[in-house]
Amino acid sequence: MEQKKVSIIVPVYRVEEFLERAVKSVQAQTHENFELILVDDCSPDGSGALCDRLAEGDARIRVIHKPQNQGAARARETGIAAATGEFIGFLDGDDYIDPDMYRTLLAAQQAHGADVVECSYYTTTDESDLPAAVGGAEHVTDRVGALALLHSVKAMHEVLWNKLFRRELLPQGEGEAVILGEDYSLLVRILSGCDKYVYIETPFCHYVQRESSVCNAGYSEKHRAALENWRAHRTRLSAEYPEIAGEITAKLLFNEMSVLAAMTKNKHYDKEVIRTVRRDVRANLRLALKSKSRTLMVTGSLLLVAISPRLLMLLYRVLFRQGRKSR
To answer: pTM for this structure?
Structure first.
């Protein structure tokens, strides 16, 4: 049987230290019919030159150098426009994948006729490599089930790097100009057109946690835009899919908690945003508590913010302090 071609797109920016590991993990795939598209987003370090060196001698690697930095979302759009594969995958330049990842995802896609296939992942640090889920079970669902999974608070599903997409589902041209939560926004667009979705509990992708990553940075004005984006999606999706409104509300309110955590990290306390988060949680708490995937941590966080956001932020400060001491 002819192997389906997969286009794997890697936005490249300030990942010179990690990029070779990511590329070699793709080259080691047991599914050999792929193209690897490295999109140099005008990186100021040596990442662009490294892309060119890594492409030497391997015709499956293509390099695109963007003339100016536009962010990861725009770099992915550039890669999508250049892709020739029937299926699309994404990888961050500081992450890496196990050899059987795309062979396994394609096998599940063909077995079920799926539009999107997702696998579990490892959260990887210098000290540990912890799987989000194990066991190998396959969960096959429809559009509503896929959107419910996207909004599950039990694991991180709102990312691109552990999934395989049927090319036709990916939007062409520029999407929303979102700096934080851009993967989530793209996935909402994709899953709104998805008929069949498969989730495999086997982990294949290593999500590398770095202190310098955007996710670990402190609060900035970008978080205001992220809040507006999450709230707009919540309003629309809850109205369109009332059967999973509790899941959607719990997940996106919990995302708002991450904004409070970011404030705690760099001690930049935006009082207006803190007030809006508290009002939002209080107004939607009852619906959020109907979430079937709700955890004790999520419930506790929401209740603390409903009483006083300062209580949760105090807890964050204690946790961050303990985390620094343990390193």
So the answer is: 0.91
